[in-house]
């Protein structure tokens, strides 16, 4: 065993070298970590013209049926690339420009979006699946989406997963479309009507934009595509819109964490407690660890596989013929494979401290509670405290019944007794996975549109 990469090159490092450094050195090599989740991936810079256009579109409410919801309403950089809610609120918000935990539905309706908004940060690093259930997926032959039979390539998916994903929120009734816009139309006609609206072309008169705004977008697309004479109908299409949205999101690379610095040799970058947490995280169970990395694998902290980890079934559920059932079968809804019931994609843990609430349905509103769940899912789920749900009117009536059904399936995460102090060490480690930029509004400013001449539809968020 060699410890050469940890040879201190200055005298102060001696003091900081802890008993854990040698152990971690071995674990880091065994797990093949480089510290850099972006290794080998070329992603756009936010300064690129297409990412800049994508940013304005991402914040524009013009992409929603009733012009009241933007992508950023549920994925705001200042909210960790999410919305700070257990279950997202799209259309029918009481105050559409209010984001975060104060965002409520009109008339105190109960949330209709069944899942928690994942962060868009680092979305360019996913290689296989998008969404909690992986319904947008990379195939050898292309990308499959909900518009086609699963495992068939969608010819309109575009050339990366983020582009493929970006074409769906606008077609979802609860997220952005509402019940009125292009009523009875297909997902594709909905996208095309929205592109026509943005470009001010086409026959539809449905909630048109002010002429000044369509002129603004035409100018912006002409600039990006360097085609000063081109028609809106050529430049502003559902495909170019998705491409721009994807470019913006793929520029949200936040991987410069203290953990990365540590793996790359800066022994003082993380605390002794965090080091202990890292050992517990990476070690196998038979070696006294909790084997978190058997699923949260590699520098991106995910194996991109689907697991049944007994996340407490709160919320309206998804895909139930009978709405009263409130169950979410997760990956099974995509594959119909019996083993896939209740399985959800292993989330990345980069920036996890700022991406709460946690779990595919936001069941846990503190990082500590979800870590306790991961240590002993049976104990945590059976003693689940619904009092932690601060968002009003989240359905929980079927919690016990649905949990019983979940316990009947094959869970993929074994429970075990754990030391109290280990929870704190694991939390200290998870906090080292935060890129400092994501906690600093001045640093995030580059991902938020500003300027006096932005179109009216661009979201001016209040928190
Ligand atoms: C109403 C809130 C809401 C709006 C508006 C919204 N999203 Fe989302 N987004 C979600 C939720 C909830 C999910 C998870 C859904 C699921 O997995 O079933 C999600 C998933 C995603 C993902 C997948 C991330 C991952 O890790 O797989 C991306 C990327 C994304 N949204 C981008 C967008 C874009 C681009 C827009 C605008 C075109 C948008 N979202 C609009 C709530 C929203
Ligand atoms: C068997 C695979 C597996 C193992 C082992 C595992 N996890 Fe997870 N973890 C998951 C899955 C899958 C989810 C998402 C479940 C869901 O949303 O329903 C998750 C969710 C999480 C979350 C919430 C992330 C978010 O964005 O919502 C945290 C934090 C977490 N795990 C930490 C840990 C820690 C710490 C350990 C070790 C003590 C661990 N996990 C062990 C698969 C695993």
TrEMBL record:
SUPFAM superfamilies: Cytochrome c
Gene3D superfamilies in the record: Cytochrome c-like domain
Main location: other
Name this polypeptide is given: Cytochrome c peroxidase
Location within or outside the cell: Cell envelope
Pfam families on file: CCP_MauG (PF03150)
PANTHER family in the record: BLL6722 PROTEIN (PTHR30600:SF10), CYTOCHROME C PEROXIDASE-RELATED (PTHR30600)
């Amino acid at each position: 065993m060699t410890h050469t990469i940890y040879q201190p090159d200055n005298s102060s490092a001696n003091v900081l070298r802890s008993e854990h450094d040698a152990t971690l050195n071995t674990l880091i090599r065994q797990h093949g970590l480089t510290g850099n989740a972006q290794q080998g991936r070329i992603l756009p810079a936010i300064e690129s013209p297409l990412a800049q256009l994508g940013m304005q579109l991402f914040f524009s409410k013009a992409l929603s049926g009733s012009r009241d919801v933007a992508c950023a309403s549920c994925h705001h950089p200042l909210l960790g690339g999410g919305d700070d809610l257990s279950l997202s609120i799209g259309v029918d918000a009481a105050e559409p420009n209010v984001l975060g935990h104060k965002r409520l539905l009109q008339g105190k309706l109960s949330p209709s979006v069944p899942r928690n908004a994942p962060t868009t940060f680092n979305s360019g690093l996913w290689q296989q699946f998008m969404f909690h259930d992986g319904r947008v997926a990379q195939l050898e032959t292309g990308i499959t989406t909900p518009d086609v039979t699963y495992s068939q390539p969608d010819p309109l998916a575009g050339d990366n997963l983020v582009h493929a994903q970006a074409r769906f929120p606008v077609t979802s009734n609860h997220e952005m479309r509402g019940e009125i816009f292009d009523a009875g139309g297909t997902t594709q006609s909905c996208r095309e009507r929205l592109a026509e609206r943005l470009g001010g072309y086409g026959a539809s008169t449905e909630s048109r934009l002010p002429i000044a705004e369509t002129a603004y977008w035409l100018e912006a697309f002409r600039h990006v595509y360097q085609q000063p004479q081109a028609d809106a109908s050529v430049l502003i299409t559902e495909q170019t819109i998705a491409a721009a949205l994807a470019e913006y999101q793929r520029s949200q690379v936040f991987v410069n964490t203290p953990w990365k610095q540590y793996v790359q040799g800066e022994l003082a970058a993380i605390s002794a407690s965090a080091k202990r947490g890292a050992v517990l995280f990476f070690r196998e169970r038979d070696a006294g660890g909790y084997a978190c990395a058997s699923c949260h694998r590699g520098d991106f902290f995910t194996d991109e596989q689907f697991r049944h980890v007994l996340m407490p079934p709160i919320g309206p559920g998804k895909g139930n013929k009978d709405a009263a059932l409130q169950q979410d079968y997760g990956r099974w809804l995509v594959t119909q494979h019996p083993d896939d019931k209740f399985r959800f994609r292993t989330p990345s843990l980069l920036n996890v401290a700022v991406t709460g609430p946690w779990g595919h349905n936001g069941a846990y509103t503190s990082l500590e509670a979800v870590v306790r769940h991961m240590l002993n899912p049976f104990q945590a789920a059976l003693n689940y405290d619904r009092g932690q749900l601060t968002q009003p009117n989240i359905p929980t009536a079927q919690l016990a019944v649905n949990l019983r059904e979940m316990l009947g399936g094959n869970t993929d995460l074994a429970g075990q007794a754990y030391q109290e102090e280990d929870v704190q060490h694991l939390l200290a480690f998870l906090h080292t996975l935060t890129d400092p930029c994501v906690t600093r509004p001045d640093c995030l400013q580059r991902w938020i549109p500003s300027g006096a001449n932005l179109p009216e539809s661009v979201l001016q968020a209040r928190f």
